[in-house]
Amino acid sequence: MNNPDKKSPGRPRSVKSHQAMLQATLELLAEVGFDAMSIDAIAARAGVGKTTIYRRYASKAELVADAIENVREEMVIPDTGTLQGDIDALVQNAAQITLSPLGRQTVAMIISSASSNAQFAQIYWTKYLQPRRKTFAIVLERAKARNEIPADLDSDLVFDTMSGIMLYALIFQPTSESWTAYVRRALSLLFRSN
Q1: In a 10 Å sphere around its CB, with 0-12 CB exposed, 13-18 middle and 19+ buried, how is residue 10 labelled?
Q2: Domain that holds residue 43
């Protein structure tokens, strides 16, 4: 027997609408940047109401961070048995993600938006970079246990340096070697002292 006083649950959230919001967010971010884009424009492009967006996200910055996270793949923790093998696997994974047209566009948008908006930079740091830094530390802890690198090597600094090298090579592409070869060669300098 049905209880007429019992409220039915709200309309289920549409996966299609959510994906449309994320896609519209990325497109507008690439076209006009973080500061110039609005929730109104995102809603119009996605074909949803503003309330649909605000039901899921408290702010534009939160929506943008989720959109970026949605297109980026999780960092794989390789375990090849050697630091060199693990670094090679990480570089190869980064190349597959970063060197695609969408990857290049996303990196450009992240750099532009993060450098002009501190709120966006903080959300991106918290949702994307910090978890990957922690994951990367596992690779270096294994290398330390195998005595491949000094026990006091700062994994956060290595991750930041690796990220910087990758971004530099993406923007100022080496002419004499591939992106992956350049990044691998540059990273090998970090570990030469051992």
Answers
A1: exposed
A2: 15-70
